[in-house]
Amino acid sequence: MKTRFLRDLEVSALGLGCMGMSSAYGPAADRGEMIRLIRHAHEGGITLFDTAEAYGPFANEDLVGEALQPIRDRVVIATKFGFDIDLRTGARTGGTNSRPDHIRQVADAALKRLRTDRIDLFYQHRVDPAVPIEDVAGVVKELIAAGKVKHFGLSEAGVATIRRAHAVQPVTAVQSEYSLFWRGPEVELLPALEELNIGFVPFSPLGAGFLTGKIDETTTFDPTDFRNAVPRFSPAARKANRALVDVIQRVANARSGTPAQVALAWLLAQKPWIVPIPGTTKLHRLEENLGSVDLVLTPAELDRIRIEAARIQIQGERLPEAALKMTGR
Ligand SMILES: NC(=O)c1ccc[n+]([C@@H]2O[C@H](COP(=O)([O-])OP(=O)(O)OC[C@H]3O[C@@H](n4cnc5c(N)ncnc54)[C@H](OP(=O)(O)O)[C@@H]3O)[C@@H](O)[C@H]2O)c1
């Protein structure tokens, strides 16, 4: 497996997003199977595993902790704090909470669930407008000094916030949505990260599954699947947005690859400091996604995608309105 650097943190070129194993895409998958999948991912060369307090809440960190315990020293565990979640019950208000004391408590609880003595990469999940980012960076700095955390990250933060945080505690990685389905980061975020030497971890790199070509307007999601509430996944939007999948499919056909592989290869081709974290609950898809690392797109293929994708107007917002308001702050 090729490796990449998020600032000074070396990880596999592709990470594994673990969220969907416990939440967001319907009922949790079978725990034993997911433990096998995570360990299989490591055997396939993956060293970066992405989870969060909020996934479950708690269940996903617990799962990832159990799966990685035997190979703890050979992997990089990334998790996140910052939503307002009751530490005892898991009840959530839907808001943010990055108050210093809360961050400290979340770190200790995450360490327990992850069955480890350090969190390799600790992201603030969403910026909390009630707490100055300097205070958040200061607490993470303190946790780093105590050895409980190794690296600081931010998720869906605005560029001004990233700069302020970075001045207090260098930021190793920013994690935000990025794929051919959502290219917002190209405007301001990627140039700023390049300037500051901060790595980038695109989440939903397969467009929450859409770019794989396995979803169309007739697909039905489980009632608890968050895509039911995403404007971009309304049946009408899915029908219109298939034009983008067709672009990817044509390149995949020419390379005897799959749309998922081309969607990931396109991200890997954007910058050498980009590390996508596709999520799956299926072994054969994990294998398929791993194949993207060796599918290096040519300049002609990248040009073709650029030109053909530019003709398509994606329909529908990428998140429900309330969730969108929490991004870019
Ligand atoms: N920081 C944040 O706020 C944030 C937000 C969202 C996600 N994330 C992180 O990013 C990770 C990835 O994002 P994501 O899970 O939202 O989206 P994604 O990786 O773009 O897509 C995941 C979806 O695609 C399907 N899939 C995966 N590989 C496939 C393939 N080869 N062919 C067909 N379908 C495939 C999966 O279904 P199956 O399981 O059925 O394969 C799943 O429904 C998450 O696990 C999480 O760790 C972070």
Question: What does this protein structure show overall?
Answer:
By secondary structure, the protein is of the alpha/beta class. The protein has one domain: TIM Barrel. 38% of the residues lie in helices and 16% in strands. It has eleven helices and eleven strands. The chain has helices at 31-43, 59-68, 100-113, 133-145, 159-168, 189-196, 235-254, 259-270, 283-290, 299-310, 321-325; strands spanning 3-6, 9-12, 16-17, 48-50, 76-81, 83-85, 92-96, 119-124, 149-155, 171-177, 199-203. The chain has a seven-stranded parallel β-sheet with strand order 3-4-5-8-9-10-11, with helices on one face. Strand 8 (119-124), helix 4 (133-145) and strand 9 (149-155) form a beta-alpha-beta unit. Helix 3 packs across helix 4 (133-145) and helix 7 packs across helix 8. It is globular and about 50 Å long. NADP nicotinamide-adenine-dinucleotide phosphate is lined by residues 17-20, 25, 50, 125, 155-156, 175, 203-209, 212, 214, 260, 277-282, 285, 288-289. The site of NADP nicotinamide-adenine-dinucleotide phosphate (NAP) has 29 residues, from helix 9.
